[in-house]
Amino acid sequence: MVVFSLFFLFGWQQRVSYEIKADLDTEEHSLRAIEYFTYYNNSPYSLDTLYMHLYANAYKDGHTIYAQERRQLGDSDFLKAEQARGSIHIEHIIRGEDSLQHIIDGTIMAINLGQTLSSGDSITFKIEYLLKIPEFSSRLGYHSHHYEMVHWYPKVCVFDEYGWHRDQYHAIGEFYGEYGDYRIELTVPGDYVVAATGERIDPHDKRFIDALVSHSGKIAMGERKSVRFSAEDVHDFAWVCDPNFLVEQYEVDGILLSVFYLKQSEKKWRNAGLFAMEAVKRFNEWYGQYAYSNLSVVNGYYHGGTEYPQLVIIGPGEDQFTRLFEITIIHEIAHQWFYGIVGSNELDEAWLDEGFTTYSEIRYCEDRYGKDNSLLKLPFIPPLSRRYYYKVIYYLNQTNCIEIPILTPAYEYIDVPIAYINSAYAKPALFLFNLEGILGRQRFDSILKRYIQEYTFKHPRTEDFIKTCEEESGEDLGPLFSQFLNTTDFSDWAVKKVVGSSAEIENKGALQMPVDVFVEADSGAHVFRIGSEKKSQVIGLPASAGTIKRVIIDPHGYALEPNYWNNYYPRKFSIKPIFRFPSLDAYQILYLPYLWYGYYDGITTGLYLFGAQFVDFDFVKGRHQWTAGCTYGFESKIFYPGFSYQTPILFRRGMRARVMFKGSNSHGENTLGGGIVTSIGIPFSLMQSIGLTHSLSYFELRSYSSVDSSDWEFGRNIIFDNRFSYRYKTWNIQCGLTFSSKVIGSEFEYLKTSCEINKEMNTFIPFTVRLFAGRIVGNAPTQEKFYLSGALRISILADLFFGQAGYLSPQNHLHIRGDGNMLGYKTLHIKSAEMYCINLELPSHFPIRLFADYGYYGEYAMDFGAKVVLGPISFNFPFYTKTDEPWSLRWSIGVGN
User: Fold this and answer.
1) What does pLDDT average to over the chain?
2) How far apart are CA 698 and CA 744, in angstroms?
3) Closest CA to 286 of 345, 350, 341, 231
4) What interhelical angle do 386-399 and 427-439 show, nearest 10?
5) Could you point out which of 75, 241, 630, 861 has its C-alpha 20 to 30 Å from the C-alpha of 311?
C-alpha cells in the first residue's frame, strides 16, 4: 500500500524499447521485419494484456474507420485505388518458447501475455510481421522509387493514469506514444540514401557517407546494404529512403542539421537549410536547447509537411510567390519541441501540440519579417500576415457558430473539419498571444521554458500547463483557461460611450479576459488595464485631463475576440485602393479607377467604390456592404451609374439571411430591385446546403444604342424572381421561377421556369454532366428567353469590361455559363421559349478538357470541342456544330468558368 501511494505521489510513466531488423523489398513494395519489443511496467497496476497500434491496417480496405472517415470527408480516390491498399500481417508473436495469442481489431492489436506483468516488472517478446506498403494515400507509402516509412511497425499504445489509449487510426487527428529507445537495422538496395530518426551507428558511415553512393564507387546491380540507427528518448521512429537523395549538412548551436532533397528539387530546396537554421536558433532561445544532437529535414512526395522525432518530411519545395515552404519547415521543426520533446496526447488534446506550434510559427514570421510579415512575396500585393490568416479562420468559425470546445478529441471534428483547424491551430495560438499580452513576453517565455524543462520526455496534459502558468506568474488563471478550453464563449470589447473625460467600456461577449485600453485626452495619452470582473466599466480621467479624443481597446492586438470594429472611438475608417485584404478592425472604403474601350462607348473612364465592414457573402459575415460607381463613354457621351447594398439580417448556425438592393443604368437599360437572400446549411462541411433568393426587380430598356437588337426588346418588365439552389457532395442543383404580370405594372405577362443539374462523376476519367431544362409560358421579352450558346446576362465583373453588343458580347465571342451552354453555337443568337440540353465535360478539373453537347430548342442541336481552362477564364474551341450554316470556328472566351 505504501508503494502504491508513492507511485501516485511522484507520478509514473511506462517505458519501452524496440529492436527491429527490417528488409525493404522495392519490387514487391513490402517490408519483412522482426521486432524485439520490451515493455517496462512502471505503473502501480498489474497487466495481463498489452495493446499495440497497427496503423498500416488503416489502408487495408474500404471498411476501416480511416476509409469511412475519408469517404465522409468526400475523398473517394483512396477507396477506388487498389494500389493504395496497405496492411500489416502479423505472422508470429513469441515470448521465449511460447507463442502469444493476439486479436486484431482494425488498427489495434491486443496481445494476451499469458501471465501477469506485475508493477516494476518487464517483458520482452518477438514479433515477426510483413508490411504491405501502400502507394501514397496519407502518410505511409511509396511513389516510384521513393519510400516514406512512417507507422511501419507494431507500436505499443500508451498506458497512463487514464488507462489504455486504444485509439484507432483516424482521418483527422494525430498520435500519442510512449517514450523509449530504438535500435533499428534496415536492409535496402545499395544505392538508396536513408534519412531516419536518431543517429547512424554504422562505424564506417557516421556522417551519412552513403549519400556518395559507396566508399568504393559504383554499386553493383542488385547489391544491398544494411544501415543501422539508434534513438533514445523518442516516442516514434520514422525513415525515408530514395536513390536520388542529395544531402547537405549544417550546424547550429551544436546541432547537426541534415537536409535530404531530391535531385529534381535542387533549386526549390536551396534555402531549406537556411530556414531550418533560423528556426532552430530561435526555438532554442525561446524554449530551451533542442534535446537531441541531430535533426533531418527531408524532401517528401506529398505537399505539406509531417513531423516525427528528429525528422520532418516536407513537400516539394519553394515557389517564387509565397513563403509557404519556409512556414511549413518552421511549423514542423517547432513540433520537435511541442510534440517531440514534450509528448502530449495529440488526439485528445491537439491544442497542446498544434496550438503551441502555430504560436511558434506566427512568432517566427513576426520576428524575422516584422509585424506586417506576409505569406506573399509579390511586391505589389498587400501583406497577408500569418496572424491575420489565423484571425480570419477564428472569425469564420465564430460568426458561423461552428466552433467546438478545444478539449474535444480530434476525430469528433469529422463533420466540420475547419472547426478542427480553429480548435487545434488558430484559436489556441491566438489565445497564447493573448496570454502573453496579459502576462508580458518575459514572464510568458519563462513559462514556456519551464514547461519544456519540467516535462521533457514526459506526457503533460492541459492541467500541467495551467499549473506551470499559475506557479510562474503567481496568478489564478483557472477561470480564464476553463472558459477558453471548455466553451465557445468569446470576448467582444466595445467602446459604449465617451462623454467628456470619461469612457465606458463593455464586454458584449461571455468570455471575460483582461484587456488594455489606450485613452488619449487633451493632456496626453494613458493606458489602463481593465480586469475581467465586470461586464461594463468606466474609465474616468481627472477633469484637468480635458476631453477624451481617442479610445482604443487592445491597442497591441492581443485580445482574443472576433469583433474589433467596435474597439475604437471614433470608429476606424480606411480608404485604400481595391487591392486590399478585408480589414478586421476598420470600415474599409476601396476605390477602383476605371479605364476601358467599348464597342459603342469608345474610351470609357470612371470610378467604382466598395465599402464594407469586412466582406459580406454567403458564409462570410460583413456589414453594410455597398458598391457605387459611374462610368462615362467619350464616344457615346453617356453616363452609366450603378449601386448595390446588402447587409445580414440573420446570421447564426446553419442559417444566414440578407437584404439587398441594387440599381443601375447600363447599356440602355434602367434597373432597380431588392430582395432577400437566404442560405441554409453548415459552411465548410459536407452537409447539404440550400440557397433561397426572392427578389422584386424593375427593368426597362429604352435604347438599342449599346445592345444587340436581335437579343433585346423594348418595354417595362417587372418581375418577381425566385431562385432555389441545392448542393451536396458532387451534386449542384439550381432552379428558378420567375413571374411577370401587368398586375404588378409590367408590360409583359409570362411565367418562366428553369432547372439546372450539375453532377461530377468520379470514374476512371472524371467528367462533369450538366442537365438543363427551361420553359416560358406567355409573352416574355426577348432578353428573358433561353439562349442556346450560353447566358445573355453577364456578371458585374464581366459587365465592367464587356458590353452587350459587338465582337466580345455574350452571344458572339464571350461565353457566360448558363442556359443551353452549347459553345459551338456562338455568333448564331439562337434563343427559344423552350430548351433542353445535356452538356458533358472531361476530364474534370484539368486545364485541358473536351466537351460535347446535345440539345433541343424546337430543333435538335449537337456540338463538341475542346477548351483550355486557366482559373476563372477559359478559351473555347468547338470542332463541330450541327447546323445548316457552313462550319466555322466559333471560338469564345469564357468568364467565371
Assistant:
1) 91
2) 10
3) 341
4) 110
5) 75
Question: What is the spatial distance between Cα 218 and Cα 208, in angstroms, rounded to a whole number?
Answer: 16
Omega cis (within 30) before 843: yes
- Rounded to the nearest 10°, the torsion over CA 391, 397, 401, 402 is -150
Q: How far apart are CA 32 and CA 186, in angstroms?
A: 10
Question: Which residue, 567, 544, 375, 342, is CA-closest to 454?
Answer: 342
The sheet with strand 87-95 has its strands ordered as 98-99, 87-95, 122-132, 30-40, 15-25, 180-189, 224-234, 199-200
Q: Give strand pairing partners of 234.
A: 180
Distance CA 80, CA 61 (A): 10
Between the CA atoms of 567, 569, 571 and 573, what dihedral angle is there, to the nearest 10 degrees?
-100
Q: What is the pLDDT confidence band of residue 729, given thresholds at 50, 70 and 90?
A: confident
Query: Are the C-beta atoms of 596 and 561 separated by less than 8 Å?
Result: no
Supply the DSSP string of 459-508, one letter for each residue. Answer: ---HHHHHHHHHHHH-S--HHHHHHHHH------EEEEEEETTEEEEEE-
Q: Where is 280: in which H helix or E strand? A: helix 272-287
Q: What is the pLDDT of residues 28-85, one digit of tens each?
A: 999 999 999 999 999 999 999 999 999 999 999 989 999 999 888 877 666 666 667 8
- Residue intervals of the chain classified under CATH 2.40.160 are 653-895
Q: Identity (one letter) of the amino acid at 298?
A: V
* pLDDT tens digits along 670-704: 899 999 999 999 988 878 999 999 999 999 988 77
CATH 2.60.40.1730 in the chain, residue ranges: 13-243
- Give residue 5's pLDDT: 40
Decide if pLDDT at 214 tops 50.
no
pLDDT at 210: 47
Given 2.40.160, 2.40.128, 1.10.20, 2.60.40, which CATH number is that of 493-569?
A: 2.60.40
Question: What does the pLDDT read at residue 8?
Answer: 44
Q: What is the pTM of this model?
A: 0.92
Instruction: Tell me the pLDDT band of 597, cut-offs 50, 70 and 90.
Output: confident
Check if the beta carbon of residue 607 is closer than 8 Å to that of residue 629: yes
Specify the residue for cell string 533549386: 267
Average of per-residue pLDDT across 762-774: 92
pLDDT band at 316 (very low <50, low <70, confident <90, very high): confident
Instruction: Give the model's pLDDT for residue 256.
Output: 96
* Strand ranges in 638-794 using DSSP code E only, listed in sequence order: 638-652, 655-666, 669-680, 689-701, 715-728, 731-740, 750-761, 767-778, 786-787
For the chain, give the longest Cα–Cα distance.
Answer: 100
From residue 62, how far is each of 67, 69, 137, 174 by CA, in Å? Answer: 5, 10, 13, 20
**653-895: which CATH topology?**
Porin (2.40.160)
Q: What is the Cα–Cα distance from 308 to 324, expressed in whole angstroms? A: 20
CA distances from 603 to 131, 596, 608, 638, 812 (A): 70, 6, 16, 11, 21
Banded model confidence at residue 207, pLDDT cuts 50, 70, 90? very low
Q: Which CATH architecture has domain 13-243?
A: Sandwich (2.60)
Quote the percentage of the chain above a pLDDT of 70: 94
Please tell me whether the peptide bond between 409 and the residue prior to it is cis, using omega within 30 degrees of 0: no
